[in-house]
Write a structure and sequence with these properties.
135 residues, mainly beta, Dna Ligase, domain 1, 5-stranded antiparallel β-sheet, 4-stranded antiparallel β-sheet, 2 helices, 9 strands, 10% helix
Length: 135
Amino acid sequence: CVFAPLWTGSPGNKAILPILWSLFPHHRYLLDTDFTVNDELVQTGYAVKPIAGRCGSNIDLVSHQEELLDKTSGKFATQKNIYQQLWCLPKVAGKYIQVCTFTVGGNYGGTCLRGDDSLVIKKESDIEPLIVIKA
């Protein structure tokens, strides 16, 4: 069981994503996100994510051909969802990899890699080795 500070509930709430997209459409650091499946999402494929979901639970990945690419279960099935442009993680050495960085006191704190055989990174996903070589 993981206990997160109360303040993490707000930035972890995905309901902000459609609002950000409406304020900054086509921004290079944002994916098209809406509270309903729109025509653009159907064309690109989309992820269905619970608004307050965590750890990769209850996510559906749907291709532009309406094919279900991946699906996870969990305790957030009854929540309202957001629909986000499909952006699959890169596959390296047989695993889909997510780069995670974090800050401490406003400064760079570290980086880790999460990897999984499936397209969705979950709480059970592996933490992969990371080597930084100074050139």
